Every structure is written in C-alpha cells, then in structure tokens.
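To: structure subgroup
Subject: Chain for Friday's discussion

All,

I'm putting the inputs and outputs inline so they're searchable in the archive.
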Amino acid sequence: MEHAGAEPYSTPDKPSWPPVAIPGQPSEPGPSVDGPDNSSASEGERVLTELREQLRRYVVLPSEEAFTAVTLWVAATHLQTAWQHAPRLAVVGPAKRCGKSRLLDVITESVHDPLITVNASAAAVFRSITDTPPTLLVDEADTLFGSAKVAEKNEEMRGLLNAGHQRNRPTLRVSGPNHEVSKFPTFAMAALAGIGDLPDTIMDRSIVIRMRRRRPGEKVAEFRTYRDTPPLHALRDRFAAWLAPLHADAMDLTPAMPVQDRAADTWQPLVSVADLAGGPWPHLARAACRVMAKHEAEQDQDRSSLGIRLLADIRRAFATEGDPPMLRTSRLLDILNQDDETPWPEYTANGLTARGLQILLQEYGIGSANHRFHGNVQAKGFTRQQFADSWARYCPEPAPETTAGA
C-alpha cells in the first residue's frame, strides 16, 4: 500500500530540458521528441510520439518518464513473441478517481490483441493464452489482491501472473476423460490497475505507474469510445506494420541497460523498442528506466523500514499495556495512532487502519485472529508470542550492559 508522504520520482542534476506537464514532478534531462518538424523522423519515432500525445490528451501521469514508459510498453506488446520477459504494467493509486481506469481505456485500444480479464478465473485466462499471446488487461485488481483474505482466494491468479513474466513457464493441468496432463502457456504481457500496491511479487515484475488525482487546473479530454478509438486503432495498426518486419532484429537485440537483475529483465523490451525506433527514444527509454527503477527500489526500502518500525512500535504498545499475552486489534491501533512521534497517525487520513496493519504485517507471517478477552468477549487481536520471532530477527532489544570484569 502506498503510504502518505511517498515522494514523486526524483532525478539527478543535469542540464534542463522541456518542462514536464505536472508541477512538482522533475524529469531527467534529454532530447525532446516534440518539435514543429519531424519530417525526417523514422516511422517508429513518429508513431511513438503520436501515441504519447494521445496519452497526454486523456490522462495526467506523474512524470515525463511515466509517459515514455507507457508509450514504449504499449509498443512492446506488438512484439511479445520476440521477448524473453513479459513486463507487467502496474497502474496503481492511493484512492479512487486517479485516472487508472482511463489510462487502461487508452491502452486497451492501442495494444496487441487486448484481453480484458475483469472477474475472469485463472483457468479461463491461461486457456486464452496461446503461442501468440494476447495482452492481458485487469482493471480493479484490488478486488483480487486488496486484502489478505481475498488474495488467498486468488493465489492461482497471482501465480499465473508471476509465471507469465518469463518465457517457458507453463502451467500444468489434468484434463480430458483420460486425465492426461496438459501444458498451458502463461507467457503474456499484462497491465493491471487498482487501488493500492499489488502483491510484491507482481510489483517486482512491473513497470509501475503511480497515479494521482488531478490538481485544479489540470485538464484532460473526455474519452468517448465511438469518437476516440479510431485514432488509437490507427496507431495500433501502424505499430503492427512497423514492428512486424523487425521481429528477427528484436530477438537479436541485447541492449545496454542502466539497471540490473529483474529490473533489467522487465525494462529490456521497452528499451529494445526504443533502440529500434532510434532518434531521441533510446535516451528517453534509459532515462525512464533509471529514474523509475530507482524510485521503486527506494519505495521497497521505505516499506521494509516501515515494517521494522511497526514491529518495534508494537513491542512498545505491548509494554505500555504491561506485556499482556494478547492485545485487541482495536486497542493496538489506538495506541499506535495516539503516538504523534510515529508515522501511524498520518499513515492515511484515518491513521493506521486494521487493513493497513494486516498488510504491513503480512510479509512477516503475522495476522490477527479471534481471541477471548476479559469478560469473555471475543474480538480480533494478536498474541505477544506471534511477534517474538520477528522481534528477535528484525528489531532485537539491545543486550544489557555488563560491568567491567563481570
């Protein structure tokens, strides 16, 4: 979950370039693809630039790098069979009305073979994936993964999205009257939109677009299907015509990457498309990769630090109550949200909530359960013993000082 106070993408100091569309969102400097005359540009440069301008019409994104990333991700869907990895596009925001669904609307009309999977079962999805994969589009992904209980019911879908990030990771199913084991491919690019962060394993395989509500004065055009899809379909067809002859070239590309490991795997298709287009796009792609991957790495570090801070504050909450064997969830939240020296009172508009607490503790294997409290009252709560192992591993109490010569 994106907590209050999260910083926008930041960039190193370099010479300035055309200002970004959103106040307060710095962008990495580099050549602009906009200009009065792009008659000498390649078809790849032109179609990428035109899609980016279509995106600007309908949505406000957090930075110039985000516009570059979404544009290149859409283009990469038209060469899925050339890639070793299928990057996810995670379109997330802290609340409703941040433009997540609108961005998905525009993407749907411009990607290769869109497959909208709202409320679809994992079995239906993997049976829809072939050797020439569609582009999966999942709106309201928070209804699949928004709480620990719901996420548990959709574990198969999470597994499918994780496996489908890399080629040659089929799922096995028993089918037919003879109960034969069949392999079903899972490899397909996917865009997911929802409130709050997706599961960590999906976020780690994603280009993450952190949406925000528009400020007063930030205007976008309304999106009307009958009027606005034809130009997007025209761009979709131009992407296909431009990239289809370059399939073999794309498979042979090993672009220089500004990041390593899984981030490099995830961004490589986008950087490859930029290299095929030429012009300013190779620089723009690597700048976006560097800035956005760094931002997500910092977010991960912040979440990790926040979880350890929470463990330590919960230990103090138990101590405040005299170290009882159990503590109600409601009482624990009261103690945490009353301490102005901690981040919890401002974690959300209502402070740290039961759901937020559950999500933060989930990675430590700690969850609330029904317990009997004083007066034979049953309520949700935690036992002190649940935290003992995590306290010892992540925030051990300092060893008592010993006197010299003891």
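Points worth raising on Friday:
Residues 44 and 286 are 17 Å apart (CA to CA).
The first strand starts at residue 88 and ends at 93.

D.
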